[in-house]
Amino acid sequence: MATASPVDAQVVDARHDYLLRLGDDSLVLGQRLSEWCGHAPVLEVDLSLANLSLDLIGQATHLLEEAGGGDGDRLAFHRDVLDFRNCLLVEQPNGDFARTIARHLLFSTWQHMLFQRLTQSSDRFLVEFSSKSVKEVAYHRELAAEWTIRLGDGTDESARRMAEGLDWNWRFVPELFEVDEMLEAVIDCGIAPDPREFEGEYRSAIAAILAEAKLEVPADQRPILGGRRGHHSEHLGHVLALMQFLPRTYPDATW
Amino acid sequence: MSHDWPLWEVFVRTKGGLSHRHFGSVHAPDAELALRHARDTYTRRQEGVSIWVVPSAAIVASDPEQAGELFEPAADKIYRHPTFYDIPDEVKHI
Question: Residue B35 is part of which domain span?
């Protein structure tokens, strides 16, 4: 733990919860993107999506090992849906390529802004982690933006699909900026940045990409929250069933 | 879809001081995405420090049918091959 002196038990809990939130975001999105492997529109895009997936699973490994005291696999493979702390956005189904890109634009833009600020965290582990990961996330953000612009400003069909993909994912954006008690506890001691401080910057950045893509910013819908407290959509259970089946059925398997 | 996309030749400089070397090719709708596809396809294991992409259509290639007249005459003229010099140890990559 970074804070050596008399450690408040509440802060330890909140830090653990925060590591799970970050780690589960990366893990679930990495698993989701891996579903594209062998199914992407073209070989080059298949490799791009697999690269994003592997970067995210690498992030999850670091974060969950830190949260699990060196045993990240236990957290990844032996927790049930209610114990996962990822945001609802990352567990949404891939849909078509445009919807996957929309989800990735909305998530990686947020993650990039978050990781930039995490490099100033009071927590030594998070500083080291984010200083390394912020570069790969910058690439994710740019790639998602490039594809959003090409699909939005492409054919009638690609523009329609891109707009539908954004519309589908838009209701999960407010959760990214929600601050509950657990998050407040790590914000107060400087471990986590306050996401509300970059919500304006986030919305302008997304609006700028969509303008370049000749797309409308989707209308705000009723926000859907709850992922950070373990209240997930029905989709996460299916993701976990596939991801956890092997290590749960064969606990001693090695590969 | 990739059949509609032009082909790009990919050249990668594997480390400072060496030349860019031909690695292969990728399909991409434009130059910017060609660079990204090249990065994702050929430098995933950190093999590169710099990438060039060139539209394959811009390559002017010699005609294989002319290989005889272009390349054969040099083969038996031993005096054209500078093999009689001592090369200093300090000279790399020659």
Answer: 2-61
**A181-229 per-position pLDDT tens digit:** 999 999 999 999 999 999 999 999 999 999 999 999 999 989 999 999 9
What DSSP state is assigned to residue B66?
G
Nearest to A42 among B2, B30, B32 (CB): B2
The DSSP string of A222-246 is -----GGGT---HHHHHHHHHHHHH
Q: Give the C-alpha separation, A113 to B64, whole Å.
A: 54
Chain B interface test: which of A37, A39, A42 (most B C-beta within 10 Å): A42
Q: Does B41 reach chain A within 8 Å, measured CB to CB?
A: yes
Chain A residues in contact with B30 (beta carbon < 8 A): 150
B86/A114 Cα distance (integer angstroms) = 59
> What is the enclosing helix (H) or strand (E) of B44?
none
**In this structure, CATH architecture of domain A9-249:** Up-down Bundle (1.20)
In CATH, what number is assigned to the domain containing residue B11?
A: 3.10.20.520
Domain count, chain B: 1
CA distance A44 to chain B (A): 6
Tokens for B54, please give them: 């060139």
